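User: Please run a holo structure prediction.
Assistant: Happy to. Please share the sequence and the ligand.
User: Here you go; the ligand is flavin mononucleotide.
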Amino acid sequence: MDALELLHNRRSVPADQLDDPAPTDADLDAILRAGVAAADHDGLQPWRFLIIRGEARASLGEVFAQALRARAPESDDAAVAKQRAKPSRSPLVLAVAARVDPDNERVPAIEQVLSAGAALNQMQLAANALGYGAIWLTGPNAHDGQVAEALGLDFDDRLVGFLYLGTPRTEQPPRERPDPARFVTEWTGARAYESL
Ligand SMILES: Cc1cc2nc3c(=O)[nH]c(=O)nc-3n(C[C@H](O)[C@H](O)[C@H](O)COP(=O)(O)O)c2cc1C
């Protein structure tokens, strides 16, 4: 697949439209290799990739359900059941976290988190290149200490998201993207300094 065509036309696939087969072990290896090729200031390799598949998805669903009960005790059974079902929507989930060293003097924490986000994005694109569908999801679970602890993350680690992976049941329609000119300014110098 042409790289630019992939970058311009990529689409996410809703998690509940991702079916078996999940990426094969060889394809998963290729996906993870794309992750560790992410931009990485000072070579810190600040990444953690957790593979969640099979029965482990139900366990993660239980973690999500308990986390909701703790976050919002007033939640009704339907809301809790919805959380419980989330990871099992797709055959494979990658939880992607930044392993943050908050004391690094050259690479601030935000840059370490950005590298983990770049790794997740690389893995989504690699999955697409291999013919799989994927979607990057966060929601409150990605920012919940109880979820982080259940995943075995350290105190300073930051979950950047869950990458749901599988084979798309349906083809996503193309999405019109904005004109990049809306976000672009030709910078020609700092006016404040020019007027000095
Ligand atoms: C950091 C991050 C977190 C996201 N979290 C969610 C989420 O929790 N729920 C959701 O519906 N979409 C979420 N998205 C958006 C989807 O991944 C996806 O980009 C969106 O559905 C648009 O589809 P497209 O990627 O085909 O344009 C998130 C995207 C990013 C970058």
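Helices lie at 3-9, 25-35, 55-71, 77-85, 109-129, 145-150, 191-194.
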